[in-house]
Amino acid sequence: MGTVIGIERAVAVKRHAAWLAPVASGWGGLCLLAGLTTAGAWLLAVAAVVFVGVNVVVVHRQRAAHTVLLLASALAWLTGSLLFLLRPEDMSSVPWWFAFLVMTIAAERLEMTRLMRRRPGAQVSLWLLLGALAAGAALSAFSVRAGGVLYGLSLFCLALWLGIFDIARRTVLAQGLARFMAVCLLGGYAWLAVAGWAWIGAALGLPLRDAALHALGLGFIVSMMMGHAPVILPAIARIKLQFGSLFYVPLAVLHLSLIVRLGIGLNDFAWRGTGALLNAVAIALFAAVMVGAAVLWQARHRSGAPKQDRS
C-alpha cells in the first residue's frame, strides 16, 4: 500500500525524486518476501523518509487540513519503519503502519467533507481521534495492553465519525459509480468499528488478533481501496474504465470472506482457512474486474459505442 500511495503522490507532485519512495518501498517488500529482513527494513525506512519529503512539498503547495493530515500519516509510516529497522523482533511497528493507512484514508475523506456543511467541532474531533490513535500506537511499544485499548477505542470512534460526517451516507442514494463508492466506504466503516473492538479484545488477552488485523487490513483498508481505485487508477495510469454491476461481485466476496473468517472461523481453523482463501479470491476478482473494465471501455470506444457509465 505504501508503494501504491507513493506512486499516487509522485504523480501528483511531478518530481522525479518523488519516485524513489515507491521504488524503495517496492524493493523493500520484495526483500521481506525473500527473507532479507535487514535490507527490506532499510529500504522501507528510505522510502518513508522520501515520502515525508514529498508530503512536505504537498503542504507547501496547498496548506489545508487534509494535506497536513497527509503529512502526519507519512510521519506515522516513517515511525513504524524506523521501529521495524531498530526492533524487527517485536510488533511495535504494526500499529504505526496501520495508522499511516488509516490517517491517509481519513485525510482523503476529510477533503471530501468540504462538499458538505460540517457541524461545528467536526474537524477538531477528527484531529483529537487521530491524535489518540497515534498516542495508542506510541504507548503500545511500552504497554501492549494500555496502548492497544487506546488504539482500538480510537479506531471505533473514528468509524463513528466517518459514518456520521462522510459524504458517502448521501451518495449511497445516487446511481452508478457514486453509489458503488459509497457502498464500499460505508461497509469499510462497519469493519473499522469491528476492528476497534477486536483490537481492544486482543490487547486484553482475548484470541482476537487475527480478527483485529484482518477487519482493519481487509475489511476497512481493502474496501477503501476498492472504492477509490475506479477513480484513482484512471488518473494515475491514464486509462478509462467502463463501470458496471460486476464491480459489486468482488466487494460482496470480500465481505463474505471476512464474515466466514472472523465469524465461524474464529474458533474453527478449517473455516478460517476457507475465509482466508476467499480473501485472496476477492482481491483477485477485483483485479480481474478492473482489467476487464479497461478492456471493455477500449472496445466500446473504438467501436464508436456510447461511452457513458452504465450501472
Report on this model:
The protein is mostly helical. 79% of the residues lie in helices and 0% in strands. The chain has twelve helices and no strands. It has helices at 2-13, 20-33, 37-61, 65-86, 93-112, 122-140, 144-165, 168-171, 176-203, 209-237, 248-262, 269-303. Helix 1 (2-13) runs antiparallel to helix 2. It is globular and about 60 Å long. The two termini are 28 Å apart.
Index terms:
12 helices, single chain, disordered C terminus, 311 residues, 79% helix, mainly alpha
Number of helices: 12
**Can you tell me the residue ranges where pLDDT is under 50 for at least 5 consecutive residues?**
307-311
β-sheet strand percentage: under 5%
Distance between the termini: 28 Å
The average pLDDT is 89
Explain briefly what this protein structure is.
With 311 residues, this protein is mainly α. It is 79% helix and 0% strand. The protein starts with a helix and ends in an 8-residue tail after the last helix.
